[in-house]
Specification:
235 residues, alpha/beta, 5-stranded parallel beta sheet, 12% strand, elongated
């Protein structure tokens, strides 16, 4: 019996000429199970990209033979739709880099957790999206983060979302009951578990609404946004 094929791991091009920063990026990204190609100059990055299609470019803003923006413009000529994230020690360069076409800008030094989070968000969803036809993909779901957390295992994500949605009405009712009874302990418990579940399945809008409600349970607008986010997933 043939073993089932694993989906391909996302392939990322990391452009960084400083050995210390390069070592940090490589170590921080190792838990994400990526295929990581590295380059230390504009010329090397172009050479690595001519015959390889990357899922994400992580580009240093300052390179020995040019700028990150120059490199991005030349890479776009090869692969127009690949997302790109800049990294720099110059916080003042953020606005310019975003205007040059980068999806986001990371300011060095930064925690490994922040780097991992931004890479998960930037990576496009992979695999056969027809299996997700039962889900309305948009602002309600963060596909990239959910698939990255599951190493691209889309069938696991589908199963988790089905379970999540089957339990969501009961969780909503439990939250409402705790709010009516002013039971802060029960409310914190329900919202804590719900926020963790949202993270596992990529329910981005609901996760934000849960954070707001945890921060101010008495807020009518926070309660309204919570119910709107739940209703959007259950429609």
């Amino acid at each position: 019996m043939m073993a089932s094929r694993e989906p391909p791991r996302p392939r990322v091009l990391l452009v960084e000429d400083d050995p210390i920063s390069l070592g940090f990026f490589q170590a921080a990204l190792e838990p994400l199970a990526l295929r990581l190609d590295s380059a230390d100059s504009l010329a090397t990055a172009l050479a690595r990209s001519r015959d390889v299609r990357h899922d994400l470019w992580l580009i240093d803003a300052h390179l020995p033979d040019g700028t990150g923006s120059d490199l991005l413009a030349r890479l776009r000529a090869l692969h127009p739709t690949t997302p790109a994230v800049a990294h720099t020690a110059d916080a003042g360069a953020t606005t310019r880099l975003l205007a040059d076409g980068f999806l986001n800008v990371l300011i060095k030094p930064l925690p490994a957790s922040e780097l991992q989070q931004q890479v998960r968000r930037a990576l496009p969803a992979r695999g056969d999206t027809s299996a997700m036809a039962g889900f309305d993909i948009g602002d309600d779901w963060d596909e990239a983060a959910a698939l990255a957390a599951l190493n691209g295992q889309q069938h696991h994500l589908i199963a988790l979302r089905e379970l999540f949605l089957s339990e969501l009405p009961g969780t909503r009712d439990a939250v409402d009951s705790a709010l009516r009874q002013d039971d802060d302990s029960a409310l914190r418990s329900h919202l804590h578990r719900l926020q963790a579940s949202c993270g596992f399945v990529g329910a981005a809008r609901l996760a934000q609404a849960v954070r707001e409600l945890r921060g101010d349970p008495r807020s009518a607008s926070a309660r309204h946004r919570f119910h709107d986010a739940v209703a959007a997933l259950l429609h």
